[in-house]
Fold this sequence. Notes:
By secondary structure, the protein is of the alpha+beta class. The chain contains 4 helices and 4 strands, in the order αβαβαβαβ. It has one domain: Alpha-Beta Plaits, CATH 3.30.70. Strands 2-3-1-4 form a 4-stranded antiparallel β-sheet, with helices on one face. It is elongated, with a radius of gyration of 20 Å.
Amino acid sequence: MLVTAVLGLAALFVIWGVSRTGHAKNRLAVTVLFERHPRATPAQERAVARLLEADPFVKRWLFEPGLNTLAMGKHQLPADVPSDSIIVTATTPEQTGEIASRVRALPGVALASD
């Protein structure tokens, strides 16, 4: 009976630890959304990319173009087309707020959420 209780408690701690690890990984991401109306210029998007490249708190980043944005070549996008974005992975969860605040100040950025 005691062995079963100890094994149950150990399993509970393992499950709790795994769930906390997954939560910490989610906190490493910062999403940068660019303005849609008027659309952020390629120069503004490159300026954000340069800032992220030079930032020691950024582990990696990935540019995600809005659907059909490049093919349309329009400055005014329909409401249902998502804006371009960059997904940033921080080196530690504590740095996500700092990264988001640096990027928010740049022109062309609509939202930087951590």
